[in-house]
Write a structure and sequence with these properties.
Mean pLDDT of chain B: 88
Distance between the termini of chain B: 40 Å
Low-confidence stretches of chain B: none
CATH class of chain B: Mainly Alpha
CATH class of chain A: Mainly Alpha
Number of strands of chain B: 4
Shape of chain B: globular
Order of helices and strands of chain B: HHEEHHHEEHHHHH
Helix content of chain B: 55-70%
CATH architecture of chain A: Up-down Bundle
Shape of chain A: globular
Radius of gyration of chain B: 17 Å
Number of domains of chain A: 1
Strand order of the largest sheet of chain B: 1-2
Number of strands of chain A: 0
Strand content of chain B: 5-15%
CATH superfamily of chain B: yeast vps74-n-term truncation variant domain like
Radius of gyration of chain A: 23 Å
Mean pLDDT of chain A: 84
Largest sheet of chain A: none
Largest interface: A-B, 53 and 50 residues
Oligomer: heterodimer
CATH topology of chain B: yeast vps74-n-term truncation variant fold
CATH architecture of chain B: Orthogonal Bundle
Structural class of chain A: mainly alpha
Number of domains of chain B: 1
Number of helices of chain A: 20
């Protein structure tokens, strides 16, 4: 994006305002992480298959409503605090630096889960799309490793997918989803449009809790709009508008397409066909191919691949930025706060993320894990659970922040955040209880504790780090959550300036 | 080294340091180069005591201390701008000056016959500013890295250059040994005048914003 020359600008304010991000651009950035087609083609079928819950569409509506309430306080807070790691900064401001650092570590791991899980879907989709085209029989992990390598290079070069290309792809994705949804609803299995998956009864037997996590996994990315508040054209309006729009558009797309999928496959068949014994991650494209023809399915495959790649790159850059921001604040080792000279990209944030991706792909390749059901779905939904916990904590922090100050508008500052904190906490507790159902494992499987336990473990590591900082480095501790874009050197500027006028330069 | 020639302008030195000596291709991203050059522009005025930094209720603001025109036309222009728009923070000034700092310095270096404009790339669509004499560019690196090797207290303008290089990751070009580099730059930083420390801190913050932001 080019910025206007000061020579042409009327004044400094005008010149600096040029090149700022508008609502649609921020919406596009947030939605590129949300990746509509990845959710519709990957998360929703995997959700049906692993949980056996029919109420996925209604879960998207319920979570969307709760998130709209969450956004009320979130947007009020983003007007007060600007930080590239908004969730952790908000938690620091509301509940104190110790909770903030613990949250920062959890956020880092949760977004990491999302990022590396994308390689599983990318590998599987690329395998089914490219192997026949190239006449080869390469394993999914070869494609995943290629995707990881490409993301690593682009991340270090700070190359993001071109805004216009991303916009066109996103528009194509949404169009494809709408066409599929209309086709699915007009070609119902058994000739009758079933409302079974929209009924609250579809969430019986504890099914509501895993379904809520699947839904929140789909929405993840909407919170990203606030990360760009500093770059927004009008912080007061642009960021809230983009956040609300992202939730509303996602809710419509996901709920309708999840319903259409169940109608097209048949509510009694959707769980079986979504599983590995049925069509698996190919379900959407197989249904689309049957109803709309094979060309449509092929276009869908290509778009899913570009969508998952865009999501992997977007999450890679987000996690790298997150690590950079934490490094600059001294919350993680400071070398995470270094940049590359040539591209000004977060050097170690990006490299570390690429190494983690490579190790995870290698682990799943050696261990023989399934790329979609294990790597993509299980890690992705665990990341979703982490984000749910963070959103609950953020809501509580926002309410605490405005309670300590003049809330101004009580609905925005206290009531809405408190309501969303309670609802999200209930959802999180329920999901933890039904975690085996979410993962699709036996109730006595160790994974039901290992995966959420990892989030708890890094949270505790963060807490210990914060306690150590509070004892050993009070300057860094005092600056936690203030943002990496603020000057982060430990020297107190105010004290320095007291001497400015009295000292010369030699 | 017993070179008695006056030190070149910090902007020029920073620009040359930020480009490969033989080809003129950039070592630094364009936004980071802009921020570094903007820091150099304000730093020059600070070093020559034309401005000072004031604390306006927690906001750092550059204020004109000596309105007499500096000998350097570019510094004169910047001082003029500072006089006509008072009350803006250093961060805003750095952001504002960074918008066209590169082209301003490039024009000056072209006029001074230090670099020449060369079109490169397949379709000749890219422009680089190639040094006429690569040795002139190498001299900047040699002079500043020599200070580090001899552990010498740098002159204020070189201290500014070192500070800017450290914040834009160019210090890796100057000093190869990581431990020596960290120790020397830490020592230089600790001995910087307070106002210069504030300026470098703001450059650091803006480089952080460049790394985090999508619009740049």
């Amino acid at each position: 994006m080019t910025r206007s020359s000061p020579a042409r600008a009327k004044n400094m304010t005008f010149a600096l305002a040029a090149g700022k991000l508008g609502t649609l651009r921020i919406l596009q950035i947030a939605a590129s992480a949300a990746a509509f087609l990845v959710v519709v083609g990957g998360i929703i079928p995997s959700g049906y298959a692993n949980t056996g819950v029919l109420g996925i569409p209604i879960a998207f509506v319920l979570v969307g409503m709760v998130l709209l309430v969450f956004c009320v306080g979130y947007n009020a807070m983003s007007r007060q605090i600007t930080n590239a790691g908004a969730l952790y900064a908000f938690i620091s401001a509301g509940l104190g630096p110790k909770a903030g650092v613990a949250a920062a570590y959890v956020a880092w791991l949760a977004y990491n889960f999302f990022q590396v899980s994308a390689y599983g879907l990318a590998g599987a989709v690329a395998q089914s799309l490219l192997n026949p085209l190239l006449g080869v029989n390469w394993a999914w992990w070869a494609y995943a490793a290629g995707c990881c390598g490409l993301v690593a290079v682009l991340g270090l070069l700070k190359i993001e997918m071109n805004a216009s290309v991303l916009g066109v792809l996103m528009l194509a994705e949404v169009t494809l989803i709408i066409v599929f949804a209309v086709a699915g609803l007009t070609h119902p299995a058994g000739g009758v449009i079933s409302l079974t998956t929209l009924s609250p009864h579809a969430l019986h037997g504890g099914g509501i809790w895993p379904a809520l996590i699947i839904a929140i996994t789909g929405y993840t990315g909407f919170e990203g709009a606030a990360y760009y508040a500093e770059e927004a054209r009008d912080r007061e309006r642009t960021v809230p508008a983009a956040t609300y729009l992202c939730v509303v558009v996602s809710m419509a797309v996901y709920a309708v397409s999840a319903w259409a999928l169940s109608v097209a496959a048949g509510p009694d068949q959707i769980v079986r066909r979504s599983g590995a014994d049925g069509d698996g991650s190919e379900l959407v494209f197989n249904l689309a191919g049957t109803i709309l023809g094979p060309a449509f399915a092929s276009v869908g495959h290509v778009l899913l691949l570009t969508s998952v790649f865009a999501a992997a790159l977007s999450f890679h850059n987000s996690v790298a930025r997150y690590a950079f921001a934490l490094g600059r604040e001294g919350v993680v080792p400071r070398w995470f706060g270094t940049v590359t000279a040539r591209s000004c990209a977060p050097l170690w944030g990006s490299l570390t993320q690429s190494m983690i991706g490579a190790v995870v792909i290698a682990g799943f390749a050696i261990g023989g894990g399934d790329p979609v059901n294990d790597l993509f779905y299980k890690l992705g939904t665990t990341g979703g659970f982490g984000v749910l916990a963070l959103l609950a904590l953020t809501s509580a922090a926002i309410a605490a922040y405005f309670l300590k100050r003049d809330a101004g508008n009580w609905w925005r500052g206290v009531i809405a955040p408190a309501v969303s904190a309670v609802l999200l906490t209930i959802a999180g507790a329920g999901a933890l209880w039904y975690f085996p159902m979410l993962l699709g494992v036996e109730p006595n499987s160790p994974w039901r504790w290992i995966l959420p336990g990892l989030l708890l473990f890094v949270g505790l590591v963060g807490l210990v780090r914060a306690v150590v900082l509070s004892k050993t480095n009070t300057d860094v501790y005092a600056r936690i959550g203030r943002g990496s874009a603020t000057s982060s050197t430990p020297s107190p500027i105010g004290a320095l300036l007291a001497r400015v006028d009295s000292e010369d330069f030699r | 080294m017993s070179d008695t020639r006056p030190l070149p302008h910090v902007e020029d030195s920073f620009y040359l340091l930020a480009h490969w000596e033989d080809t003129g291709r950039p070592r630094l991203s364009r936004p980071a180069l802009g921020v570094g050059l903007a820091g150099a522009m304000l730093g020059e005025l600070l070093v020559h005591k034309h401005i000072r930094i004031e604390d306006h209720a927690g906001v750092l603001v550059p204020a004109v201390r000596d309105p007499r025109p500096p000998a350097c036309p570019l510094a004169h222009e910047v001082l003029d701008q500072l006089q006509h728009a008072t009350g803006q923070s250093i961060r805003d000034w750095l952001d504002f000056l960074a918008l066209d700092a590169c082209s301003r310095v490039e024009k000056r270096l072209v006029r001074a016959d230090v670099v020449r404009e060369v079109e490169t790339g397949l379709l000749r669509r890219h422009r680089v500013y190639q040094p006429f004499d690569p040795n002139e560019s190498y001299l900047v690196t040699i002079r500043v890295s020599g200070l580090a090797n001899r552990w010498e207290q740098p002159a204020p303008s070189d201290a500014l250059l070192l500070g800017l290089a450290a914040e834009t990751a160019l210090h890796r070009v100057l000093i190869q040994d990581v431990r020596h580099r960290d120790a020397y730059l830490g020592w230089v930083r600790a001995n910087l005048p307070p106002a210069m420390t504030c300026l470098i801190d703001e450059v650091r913050a803006l480089i952080g914003a460049v790394a985090l932001n999508r619009a740049r």
